[in-house]
Fold this protein.
Amino acid sequence: MKKLMFIAALSLLAMFVNVSQSNAQDAKPADGKAIFEANKCMSCHSIKNVGIEAKKAEGEEAEENKAPDLSGVGLEKDAEFITKYLQKLEAVNGKKHMKKFKGTEDELKTLAAWLAEQKTKQ
């Protein structure tokens, strides 16, 4: 009986791993835009090459947003670096990202892949 339960547990685990891998493979970098918007990244960042403008805080002067436009982030950073930066494990010019990404691991990978594809100079 114990052996049967062990085999059943292994089968369930194998199914879970296969579903997780399938979901990760189904994610398209283009879905990164939806993740960017859903996580309100445009509260600080623009990506003008895809039509995303940073939202200005109420009462904010016409001064430029301090967070960079990410239209060309892929020219300098790869998806691996972006993933670590959004987890606050890497720094740019000695500064870590203001907020740690709170989505799932798959969302983070998809977002980082999409951001790494942004290679338009501004």
Notes: Residues 2-26 form the longest helix (25 residues). Confidence is low (pLDDT under 50) at residues 16-24. The helical segments are 2-26, 31-38, 73-76, 79-86, 105-116. The radius of gyration is 19 Å.
